[in-house]
Amino acid sequence: QSALTQAASVSGSPGQSITISCTGTSSDVGAYNYVSWYQQYPGKAPKLMIYDVSDRPSGVSDRFSGSKSGNTASLTISGLQAEDEADYYCSSYTSSSTFVFGGGTKVTVL
Amino acid sequence: QVQLQESGPGLVKPSPTLSLTCDVSGVSISSGNYYWSWIRQHPGRGLEWIGYIYYTGSTSYSPSLKSRVTISVDSSKNQFSLKLNSVTAADTAVYYCARVNIGHSTMRVWGQGTTVTVSS
């Protein structure tokens, strides 16, 4: 299985909205609504931000939202803040009962 | 509060097997609602899923690592383990264990990670 495709980097100014895309195939992203998004700061473990394409765990800001269309999932961060600067990874369950991650996107707040 | 803690050798020589353990607290590993997973991250790189185990012993592995990986569970100790065979410098990475919520196929709880360096 190949890694899901994410842009290497995305940037935005404080207050703006940015969107990170995650493209897979009909065997992973397109197969189920089991796409998750993780935030990772340097030297830290990943933190779950979105699951089941668009659901947020309690405690995660509603500035974070997720969606999916076909084989592509997206994470949108609204009202960008300095604390949002981190790496973001998408993940999907697959039709082979495995998981696959995206290559990661570095978000920079200008 | 659910916590996961990885443990194992930080520095290993290229050898037949690398072994890591994940101690689980705050929930029974036999509760049935979760898979227990291993993920790794090479230096400066992205996350790579290694595999998961259900408390019954049923497993799923990454196709790229399947020939070298074994994940096992010890319910009596509330822990699960990773064995990786024929390790080389390319296996140098931070290894994480995580709890997977089956109904949502998401890794909601992660350990802090343990760094493994393979070097002679």
Architecture blueprint of SSEs:
The complex is a heterodimer of chains A (110) and B (120).
Chain A: E1 9-12, E2 18-23, E3 35-40, E4 47-50, E5 64-69, E6 72-77, E7 86-93, E8 99-101, E9 105-109
Chain B: E1 3-7, E2 11-12, E3 17-25, E4 34-41, E5 47-53, E6 59-61, E7 69-74, E8 79-85, E9 93-101, E10 106-110, E11 114-118
Parallel strand pairs in B: 2-11
Antiparallel strand pairs in B: 1-3, 3-8, 4-5, 4-9, 5-6, 7-8, 9-10, 9-11
Features:
heterodimer, A: 110 residues, mainly beta, 6-stranded mixed beta sheet, 3-stranded antiparallel beta sheet, globular, B: 120 residues, 7-stranded mixed beta sheet, 4-stranded antiparallel beta sheet, 11 strands, 55% strand
Helix content of chain B: under 10%
Shape descriptor of chain B reads: globular
On the 0 to 100 scale, the average pLDDT of chain A is: 97
How many β-strand stretches of chain A? Answer: 9
What is the terminal separation of chain A in angstroms?
A: 35 Å
* Outline type of chain A: globular
Please report the distance between the alpha carbons of the first and last residues of chain B.
39 Å
Beta-strand segment tally of chain B: 11
Proportion of residues in β-strands of chain B = over 45%
Encode the helix/strand succession of chain A as letters. Answer: EEEEEEEEE
Q: Give the H and E element order of chain B.
A: EEEEEEEEEEE
| Average of per-residue pLDDT values of chain B | 95
Strand residue percentage of chain A: 35-45%
Radius of gyration of chain B: 14 Å
Chain oligomer state? heterodimer
Largest sheet of chain A: 6 strands, mixed
Please state the structural category of chain A: mainly beta
Structural class of chain B: mainly beta
The stretches of 5 or more residues of chain B where confidence is low (pLDDT under 50) are none
Helix % of chain A is: under 10%
